[in-house]
Amino acid sequence: MNMLHDLEDRLHARARRGEAVLGAFLLSGSSYVAEVMAHHPLDWLLVDLEASHASPQDLLHVLQALNAYPVTPMVRVSAHDKHQVEACLDLGARGVMIPKVDTREQAEAAAGWCLYPPAGTRSVNCIRASGYYTRAKEYFDRANRAVLAIVQVESGEGVENAPDIAAVDAVDVLFVGPGDLAASYGQTGIVTGRRMDDARKRVLDACRVHGKIPGIFAHSVESAGQYLEEGFRFVAIGNDVKFLGAGLDLYLNRLGVAGGSDGRVTR
Asked: Is the pTM of this model over 0.70?
């Protein structure tokens, strides 16, 4: 069965029960690489339109590839853009991540774009998502439950407003972006420390109070384990480009090959 037609909200339900759902970002824009990733036991894969060169056609091809596997396909849009959010959902994405959500008002607007009225303001144009109109009624009936609205908390302002953001009914996941959050605190590239610990706790507390799913991007295996222990349940463990580099490093290191200080490969 083409997973495009699977409208069960298993991922959402599992995370709400307190189970961890692990995923990764796709930066390459390649359907070939997406298929490689989908062969592994990840719960979700997210096409990153904010930090990659992927085109709308690339997005379609990646989603088509992912629909052959039991992994939930998602997209991070590049900006606060209602049309872009709707276009991703209409292509069959099962969740949309909106970056840099700092206020309740931004969260209300962004999450509302993911839902059909009266719960939200999503337009009706679900050509591919409805199986090219072959399952339109089923899609309209179930889309609001099947789609995840994910807002990114990645600034000091967003952290301070986390309780208000989490209080928005249409928001499903508050996803911490440690890189940009650290930069907002004046410690670019340093995602550890007291301020970051306090920020994560504030987001976790807000999610706990309002019954939302806490998510975060982990920059290492160690940080992923730490975040899971802290209570994060929607965790990105890396991206396809990073895994490619890490795999090559591991292979070369086992062969006794390392990069020299001048960039040349040495043995």
From this structure: yes
